[in-house]
Amino acid sequence: MTTSPPNDPSSSSSSSSSPFSFPPEYSFPPFFTRQTNLTTHHAQLTKWSSLVLAYCRHYRIFKLSLSGNPTTTTNADAPVGGGGGEGGAEPDTTELFHNRRINRRLSLADIREVIDFLRRDGRAEYVSGAAPSGGGAEGGGGDLVWIYWRTPEEWASLVESWVDATGQRGSVLTVYELVEGEGTRGSEFHGLNQELLLKALNVLVKRGKAQIFGQEDSLGVKFF
Amino acid sequence: MFLKQIDLTGALRPTFVSDDEDLLFVQDNVGLYEGKYKLPNHQNGQIYLTSHRICYVDKAEPRKHSVALDLKDVERFEFYGGFLKSSAKVTLIPKPTKRASLQPRSPVPAGSPSRSSTSSPAQHQDGSLRVSQAENTPISSATWVCTICSFSNPVPSNFDPTTANVHTPLPPCLACGIKPSLTHVLKAAISSATSRQPNGPVLQTPLPVRPRPGAELSAGPEPARDSSPRSSDPDASFQCPRCTFLNHPSLLSCEICGAPLISRDLPAELLPQTRTHTESPGPVLHALSPVAPGAENPECVKISFRGGGEKIFYERLKGAMTQRKWLLQGAPPIPKASRPGESPVNGAAAGTAMSASTTNPASQTRPKIGGIAGLEHHSQAMRKNNELVIGSAFEDLEALMASAKEVVALADSFARQVKGASNASENALLADSVSQLGLVATKDIVGSSSGAGGSDSLYLSELSRTLAEFLTDDRRGVLRKAGGIMSLVDLWAVFNRARGGVELVSPADFKKAAALWEKLGLPVRLRTFKSGVKVVQSRDRTDETTIKALLAWLRDLHEFPPDREVPWDWRRFGRGVTARDVAERFGWSIGVAEEELEMAEEKGVLCREEGIEGLKFWENFIDTGEGNGFKDLSREHAEKVVKRLTDAGFL
Fold first, then answer.
1. How far is the C-alpha of B591 from the C-alpha of B581, rounded, in Å?
2. CATH architecture of residue range(s) B543-619
3. A188 burial class (0-12, 13-18, 19+ CB within 10 angstroms)?
4. In this predicted model, what pLDDT tens digit does every residue of B379-402 receive, in sequence order?
5. Where is this region: Disordered (chain A) (predicted)?
6. Which of helix, strand or coil describes residue A219?
């Protein structure tokens, strides 16, 4: 009960239908060039990270493809329900790093730098399974990246507070129920990427607040 | 005063008195003495020997304590080699006549126009008179006739036939620059002396003097002297020696003809009794000597060379005193010798007029021819004269030296004539620069210094000052034309080109000299950019002012729409500028513009954009200082920590 999720669902669900409004620097041409001045560069990274986070939060993107291939991010959860892509078509994430209006694009190396900056902050993580090529480089070569606009810990506490609020402590829920069930509709984690939810649940398991059992596609969770 | 306060340039070097003044020698670490005593505040400085003056520039307080003395006021100079702890000195003994006679009158500077405009003989006579009395060899008006050009030159004031030998320096002919043989001058001096022999004894009797308070001297008119007879009556008027007009006694120059009215002989005759006890060279001379030689003269100035260099100084001083360039002021001598039928004074006037190509007073003596014929006649005469000048100038090197000024003037006028045809703007600029680069420091005019390699440092500091002067000179505006900043390499090229291909400065010396600006407190500074590029700019231009100028311009771009449609919001962001734009806008070279932009970027004022159009610089809208997103993240991080602590049961 320490976090402040109650106001989030309404804001995110209401704004997801409208297109994302980019910050002013998005249309500032030098924003797409790596700055050499260290302080300016840091400010640039900071602004890019917050832009990426805000963008992903807006469109509820959990996995971001750095090359801008939209299918990889959506095939996991889009067909299952309308949670993520309420507006129908999945947003073209290439626009995040490519401002077509001013014809400027952030290079892949620079994108990786932004992602690294996010990773240092615990706000991003390379999807390990999706990028076998980058195994040598400490997961740095992958195309798919978890963008934690909420970290697994935060998701975990969200789930926990929902369980508390609905009085389901001690009961057993399937993961599918948590993500797609009628009961969670309206809550923040409705439509959450299943893998990400598992990460969050594992956090709870570690804390001793939950227990996961079952097989591959019929996972169950028991909350204590 | 023998020593006069002088003006300094921005680089703390003495300013010129006249255009043809040449720097002959520089030596640092010298002190000044007056008489036997050290002059306070003048004990550590640099001495500049020019063809006209000796300037002392104090090291500690150059603006306050810098003095100079004119060589033309110098009667004699002596050399003292130094002994044990006493360093070598050069003693300069002033001409006392002028000083003493002028004392009761208003102090007119020695080089006042009225006097310098009267031709050299008058001035010369002026100085030599005292010598004639001091050494009992009245050679005052002695002249020797040049065997080459038959110009009658004055025998130098310091020429003493009794002691002259082969090594006595003899001045070259003023007209043609050929040195006379010793016997020739000796003969002239002796003959003039013998012609005056009968007057010898009279010299000991006081001469007629200008009426002067307290001077109760009376004497009959002196027929042998060229100075006019004067009455002893204090109220009597003063007769001009030239035109015999009776002037009021308080006048300095004749009302009618402008000749100087100076009683030259006054002090020489007044002072002898008080100054008999001197270390004079010989008893015979001593008895007759009215004025003691230097040692006892309270105003004699000694230059003490604590850092060495005295020998060269002495040699150069000797040369300068022999050459007596200051006599040449204004009147090129050659044409007057080659033009028959004109008095020397007229000739001199004509000479000046010729070089200035204006109407000359000499034309009054010619038959009057009017109209086009007159003009033609005039130009023909001019051409003939020019021919003559050039012909004689190149006859031999000495003559060329003597008439250098004239030849330069001619060359200038020729250049002006051809200017119309060619694009002579750059040539003119260069020629200009060359003529303005008068006081240049070269390695051989700089004296040796005490320490090992010390002379090098003096040379460098002189070069550094010269450079600063070159840069800040308003006439040239080197720095101004380059937008207030130029790269060291460019400056090196310009400077060496301005030197006209002689006395070129090596890059290494140049760099070292530039590095000295800061230390010497000169108005320019050397800046090194991050990339290692060295530039020169004036001291008041700092990074801040540059950035301000850049930003002001970029902000202007928010107001004015760009040349073509741009997709971004130019009212908000303005537009990016390339180094070329900046170079064009501020008049910098592209290299400098790049460096300045990168400097501004380094300071975080600008940011860059690399695109297909090249590298562009923008006002920095990336780092606007708020850093929102990052703060949010860190706050969240802090919250996370707190939460973890809560979860773990610590809170």
1. 12
2. Orthogonal Bundle (1.10)
3. buried
4. 888 888 888 877 776 666 666 666
5. 1-21, 70-95
6. strand
- Contact call for A40 and B643, based on CB within 8 A: no
Using a CB–CB cutoff of 8 Å, tell me whether B629 touches chain A. yes
In DSSP terms, A145 is beta-bridged to: A64, A126
Q: State the best of A8, A34, A38, A47 to mutate against chain B, taking most chain B CBs within 10 Å.
A: A47
| ipTM exceeds 0.95, yes or no | no
Taking CB atoms within 8 Å and a gap of at least 24, the contacts of A78-87 are A80/A179, A80/A180, A80/A191, A81/A179, A81/A180, A81/A191, A82/A191, A83/A179, A83/A180, A83/A190, A83/A191, A83/A192, A84/A59, A84/A60, A84/A191, A86/A13, A86/A16, A86/A17, A87/A16, A87/A17
pLDDT per residue as tens digits for the range B116-140: 344 444 444 444 444 334 444 344 5
Decide if B200 contacts B224 (C-beta within 8 A).
no
Pick from B151, B142, B147, B116: nearest CA to B334: B151
Q: Would you tell me which CATH number, out of the four given (3.10.129.10, 1.10.3210.10, 1.10.10.570, 1.10.290.10), belongs to the domain A7-147?
A: 1.10.10.570
8 Å CB contact of A35 and B608: yes
Architecture of the structural domain at A152-223: Orthogonal Bundle (1.10)
pLDDT band at B637 (very low <50, low <70, confident <90, very high): low
d(CA B500, CA B404): 16
In the chain, the amino acid numbered A15 is S
For residue B602, give the nearest of A33, A37, A101 by CB distance: A37
* Backbone torsions φ then ψ of B437, nearest 5 degrees: -80, 65
| Alpha carbon of A32: minimum distance to chain B alpha carbons (Å) | 7
Domain A7-147 identical in fold to domain A152-223: yes
Chain A residues whose beta carbon lies within 8 Å of the beta carbon of residue B619? none
Q: Can you read off the two tokens belonging to residue A208?
A: 């001793």
Q: Domain B4-102+293-327's class?
A: mainly beta
Closest CA to B454 of B330, B305, B560: B305
Q: Identify residue B336 by its one-letter amino acid code.
A: K
Name the CATH architecture for the domain at B443-538. Orthogonal Bundle (1.10)
**Spatial CB neighbours of B242, under 8 Å, sequence gap ≥ 6:** B254, B257, B259
HSE at residue A155, side-chain half, CA atoms within 13 A, is 25
For residue B354, the Cα-to-chain-centroid distance in whole angstroms is 25
